[in-house]
Design brief:
It is a single chain. The N and C termini lie far apart (49 Å). It contains seven helices and eleven strands. It has 266 residues and is α/β, with parallel strands linked by helices. The strands form three sheets. It has a six-stranded mixed sheet, with helices on both faces. The longest helix is centred in the N-terminal third of the chain and has 29 residues. Strand 1, helix 2 and strand 2 form a beta-alpha-beta unit. It folds into two domains: 39 residues, no CATH class; 214 residues, Spore Coat Polysaccharide Biosynthesis Protein SpsA, Chain A. It is globular and about 70 Å long.
Length: 266
């Protein structure tokens, strides 16, 4: 009995020492010496070439909606930063880069990143991979109608292009090497804006990525109204009337989260 007790105490002490060491490494990496940050929960990937990634520091109905929608589509979803202290939108870039750098990824590995609390997946893994492949480029960025957070950058994009021509960092898909190239393209702190980061990369590297201007894969709902959409397939899919496309990933960015919640309640 005493031996069993000593073994259990040893296991508990080892766990606590590991947690303290991990917390120290995290603080050193992100220079938040005074923050009370828990160690990130990083789940190892499983099998298929398409893997979804998101950043969420806590559970919610919206996160459950996202997770269940990925499960229905047959897409594994890795939740990064769970239990961590949220410092800013730059965390999305930093935590994804940290996770991908730890993985031994093949060239065929496809990274699908989406925001956590205002997104739902309506497509299957096969459909998303097929649509991505048809772009004929290694990285595809979600496109929205507004140029945020820097409206002055709108002049950098083709004014004759479709309305969904501005990058939205809440959704992108690409081969792991292409995604890592973007994530490594510039320094970013946790408190900086990830959409500004992605927009600048798109502007500087127009031949290395495409914007999903026809909403084949991604549909950010900002500045979209209900009459622009039609529910199809027993209300399981959404048709964008103007484009005639059925996007796989719906993103209720900004105030449009109300529209997403109306279409697919959490």
């Amino acid at each position: 009995m005493n031996n069993l007790f000593l073994i259990l105490v040893g296991i508990l002490l080892s766990f606590l020492m590991g947690l303290v060491a991990a917390k120290k490494r995290y603080r050193n990496r992100y220079k938040q010496e005074s923050s009370q940050v828990l160690n990130c929960i990083l789940v190892p990937p499983i099998a298929p070439s398409l893997v979804g990634y998101t950043v969420a520091t806590h559970g919610s109905r919206e996160l459950r909606r996202l997770s269940q929608s990925f499960r229905r589509g047959g897409i594994p979803l890795l939740i990064l930063g769970y239990g961590c202290k949220w410092q800013g939108f730059g965390n999305k870039i930093l935590w994804l880069k940290e996770q991908l750098s730890k993985q031994n990824l093949s060239k065929a590995h496809i990274v699908l990143f989406v925001d956590a609390y205002d997104v739902i997946n309506l497509g299957s893994a096969a459909e998303i991979v097929a649509k991505f492949t048809r772009f004929g480029i290694d990285l595809v960025i979600s496109g929205e109608k507004g140029c945020h957070p820097d409206p002055q950058l709108a002049r950098e994009f083709d004014s004759n292009a479709p309305p969904f021509r501005y990058p939205n960092s809440g959704g992108y898909i690409g081969y792991s090497s292409a995604v890592m190239e973007m994530l490594n393209s510039a320094e970013i702190s946790p408190h900086e804006d990830d959409q500004r980061f992605v927009s600048r990369y798109v502007i500087q590297n127009p031949r290395k990525c495409s914007i999903d201007t026809n909403c084949e894969i991604f549909l950010p709902l900002f500045d979209v109204v209900a009459s622009d959409l039609e529910l199809t397939n027993d209300e399981q899919r959404v048709l964008l009337r103007d484009k005639g496309t059925q996007p796989c990933i719906l993103h209720g960015n900004g105030p449009s989260k109300l529209l997403l919640d109306e279409l697919f309640p959490a």
